[in-house]
Amino acid sequence: MSDMRELYQQVILDHNKNPRNFGPLESANRTAEGYNPLCGDHYTFFVEMDGDLVKNISFQGSGCAISKASASVMSSIVKGKNQEEVAELFEKFHSMVTGAAKAEDDPTLGRLAAFGGVSEHPSRIKCATLAWHTMNSVVKGEKEVVTTE
Amino acid sequence: MSVTNAVETASPALEGSHVRDDFPILRQQIHGKPLVYLDNAATTQKPQAVIDAITHYYTTDNSNVHRGVHLLSERATAAFEAARSKATRFLNAASDREVIFVRGCTEGINLVAQSYGREFIGEGDEIIVSAIEHHSNIVPWQMLAEQTGAIVRVIPVNDEGELMLDAYERLLNVRTKLVAVGHISNALGTVNPIKTIIDRAHQHGAVVLIDGAQGAPHTPIDVQALGCDFYVFSGHKVFGPTGIGVLYGRESLLEAMSPWQGGGDMILSVSWEKTTWNSLPFKFEAGTPNIAGAIGLGAAIDYVSAVGLPRIAAWEHELLEYGTQRLLEIPRLRLVGTAREKASVLSFVLEGIHPHDIGTIVDQEGVAIRTGHHCAQPLMTRYGLSATARASIALYNTKEDIDVLADSLHKVIEVFG
What we know:
Chain A contains five helices and three strands.
């Protein structure tokens, strides 16, 4: 059970059950879709950009606990950040979940560190990164449906 | 051959514990817990007899087949062709000429689609498949339809997972040229009434291909009694190696078909002016075949035959009933696929918990199940699901395996609250 608790940390279980920023966003000026057809994780992100600043963000959709919690935590964290800061966070998050960097070595990860256990489950990395890849395409202004499969 | 004594001496009812020791992989621990392998519809584990047959071939007989005059080549050829004869008997085909070695079901279906289909199915002709097919029995027909202008029609499925035979009757018409359905559904466990499906198709002059990927490991097959025109199965789902399978084809049809792939072994003579094809079954076996795979499959057929498919089916039925009962005790669990005729598969969803989360958590308890769409996306769409969790059983599973699964599902619910 200990390994399992490492993956499904309380932060993840909490955000899965009560996702933050969940639902449509009227003020959004950009939307993007993240979809992994193989596992069925499917989310739409609504983003209000002010220049290169993420002024507000929400999402809706469904998927596994890892993908939903990742979308929820991501939406909380990127609010108020600019394009460069979002890209930097994504880079750090990606390094952590793919095992290239250790969560405990980077105190700036904050709540994102809860996803550190994903690196032990290679088949679940794509669940954790779907929201971030989609967000990346939003801030870059790309249109197509994003997939991490 | 190493089949347990309990099995060799008489034919008492089979239990998983009688044959478990024949499968060395099952002796290991996963995350510190004994392995509970319930992903048999994806692939089955291999008995020591199969592993030994492959090792023996590479250790003592390895050579190319059908060509050499030296002793090794003669031994390899004899073992390879003996494996074919075992497959012939396993299916009760009329002769070895009707048994073609392929990579697996997928390749067998593609062979029929491209060789029989391209020649005998044309624009406006109709191909009938069912709503519960694996992608491998959908996509080759879609490709053929794209190439020829033929139309793919679909037998609908009811909420329990049974094919709607009235609708099938209405789909059949003079333009129906081929019907392709699975013997047992990999996603739901439904046992299709293939004898009825075959008979109705024949009344309309259509040929029938049965995808036996999930049929071969669970139920005796008699292609002559069934009257089917093509039957495919994969070695790795019947305790043999991956990369080998069998396409059975009615001899008159195979004779009328052109080769699918060109190359060595499938020709009688080659010249710049005219190349002539080899006789059956070699006409459809271009290139050096998977010799060790075929020999391993032969050993797997020997194993299954020695245990006895009727006894295997009886034990699996008992396990399926026990598993159904145990799973239905779990709150928020819904079985997907409740056909009256069902074999070996327990597909389910837990309300509010994604199947991938279920799969990851039960893995921590040593339990291997499949989660996802099971290569049957149109079926998942039909039921409004993106995925299910699936436990699929084989002869070596036990009631204790089912108990561990049920306990681990209670843990899943504990974690997600």
